[in-house]
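Ticket #4471: structure export looks truncated?
Reporter: QA, pipeline team
Priority: medium

Steps to reproduce: submit the single chain below to the structure queue and open the exported record.
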Amino acid sequence: MAIVLGAIADDFTGATDLANNLVRGGMRCVQLIGVPEHGLAGVIDDSDAVDAVVIALKSRSCPVGEAVRDSMHALEWLREAGARQFFFKYCSTFDSSAEGNIGPVSDTLLQRLEAPFTVMVPAFPVNGRTVYQGHLFVGDRLLNESGMQHHPLTPMRDADLVRVLARQSEHPVGLLAWHELQRGAQAARSRLDALASRGMRQVICDTLTEADLDVLAEAVADLPLVTGGSGLGQALPAQYRRLGWLAKVAEAGALEPASGGALVLSGSCSRATLAQVGAFLEHHPGFRLDPLALADGEDHLEEALTFARARLAVGEPVLIYASAAAERVRRFQEALGRDHAGELVEQALGWLAVALVDEGVGRLVVAGGESSGAVVSALGVRAMRIGEQIDPGVPWTQATLAGRKAPLSLALKSGNFGGEDFFLRAFDILPTVDDSGGGA
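Actual output as written to the record:
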């Protein structure tokens, strides 16, 4: 089976974010967790009904060599699947490891595909991520003033993406400025070709509006490789239809009705997620995970499990969270070590997910990229069908798990995404069957 778009995402929520926008653009999409051992037909039953595949990796903050190796493995699998175009997806805040994984991965993918150049389009205007004169804004603040400068794993202290990428890439970095983009797709492509002829194989693209994304998509739809955030993903399907690569499909995001208890597991410490945790706690109790208590043994996990069981027994949604303000996170990291503190939380969330899904949870929201990776890995999720959007960048998905009669409904939320009422509203908009007892 040939697919139109094969995407490689550097974390799990970013993969879901891109897949969501592809579905909104009319593409039937499957997200894979890691690179499968076999072809797509060995992962899902109806592989012929797939237009796009997004492979989710955990390569955003890992060592550079590991990120390059895993991305190349994903590329080769997607090439075997017959993808016409490839997409390297990273966060709309352009963050990766201190050494920078975005540049080295892009360089390697370009070399393997023998592509002359690619575009770097992190912007997602509907979520407040825009680029002007090469500088990334979050809302009305420069990236390095948006809170991302305090990110516990991948702090971003420079908003000039040309400068950031130049520190990571083997090649000169170009800029497609906004005034050049306003001349239309043909002029934008001519400018990109001109920059490439001068050795600039990666070009940061100014983007202020959804219309700018449409222009960029038209300009680059036939490139072997594009890179960026999920905003570009929503604009590409229309161009694939223009090229005759993609047929119109009714209800690209159709899923089965959901069943089972409702659970939120939150590890993100972003401002958006902290506000969502606060909004949930105004209406329902929650259980806060303490990394220091987790380090002392299993009693703290058992307390969390007892709390969740009591809430689920009366049909209430459950929130278990390690989300905390930056100062509190720093205290945990100083006491336990940065990596160990994060590992304790991720292991705890994964363990709780397995235990509670086994006991009947069928609707699960996970907040945070690292947390989502830990949870889906613990559950053994290998593939997810992408459904309808909850908030920009976050859809419901469904996965088939061994031993469950009904699919597990999953929403993997990037820490920075979603409105304050996200944890409350996500379950309200998900169609369910009359089966409050489980489906496990």
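Status: closed, not a bug. The export was complete when the record was re-opened. Leaving a note from the reviewer for reference: Confidence is low (pLDDT under 50) at residues 435-440.
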